[in-house]
Amino acid sequence: MNNLLDEEAQWVEGNLGKDWREHVLDDGRTLLKNSLGYNAHKGASTQWIDVTAWPDYETGSTKNQIEYRKVTGRGSRVLIYGKVQTYSYQSHDGQQIEGYRMNIWRLAKVIKIKQARTEPVTAVKAPTPTDLSDEEPF
């Protein structure tokens, strides 16, 4: 992904910044909120995206939210699918701050298998024909 502000929904990979927290709306629906640290490329500064998982629109089911909480938390590497939006607000000192937010449509946990470190291989010189003896080894 190159541009967070694509018009289309997209997958964004990053690390969750905290454990999920619940937010109950006036109508009784429960949302899950978190933040996602995203880097466009190695060495880029981290962009933080506020992410929200809503109950299923048609059924009101929170099944997905329950699963998100079971398998992910602070520091989890995840892929989230949705549309990124910008928002802005004025800080206490009058500075204009811009941020990103995203409603989660799908979430996948990224599993990275750590490779076992191996000792460096020492190069061994292959024998040349002159190194080999005509005598039988036994």
Please characterize this protein's 3D structure.
The protein has one helix at 63-71; strands at 10-16, 21-24, 30-38, 47-53, 77-82, 84-90, 96-104, 106-109. It is mainly beta. Strands 1, 2, 3, 4, 5, 6, 7 and 8 form an 8-stranded mixed β-sheet that branches. Strand 3 and strand 4 (47-53) form a beta hairpin. The longest helix is centred in the middle third of the chain and has 9 residues, at 63-71. The chain is globular and about 60 Å long. The N and C termini lie far apart (64 Å). The mean pLDDT is 83.
Question: If you compute it from the alpha carbons, what radius of gyration comes out, rounded to the nearest whole angstrom?
Answer: 26 Å
Q: Please trace the helix and strand order, writing H or E for each element.
A: EEEEHEEEE
Uncertain runs with pLDDT below 50, 5 residues or more? none
The 3D shape can be described as: globular
What proportion strand?
A: 35-45%
Query: Portion of residues in helices?
Result: under 10%
Number of strands: 8
Please report the distance between the alpha carbons of the first and last residues: 64 Å
Mean pLDDT reading: 83
How many helices? The count is: 1
The largest sheet is: 8 strands, mixed
- Class of secondary structure makeup: mainly beta
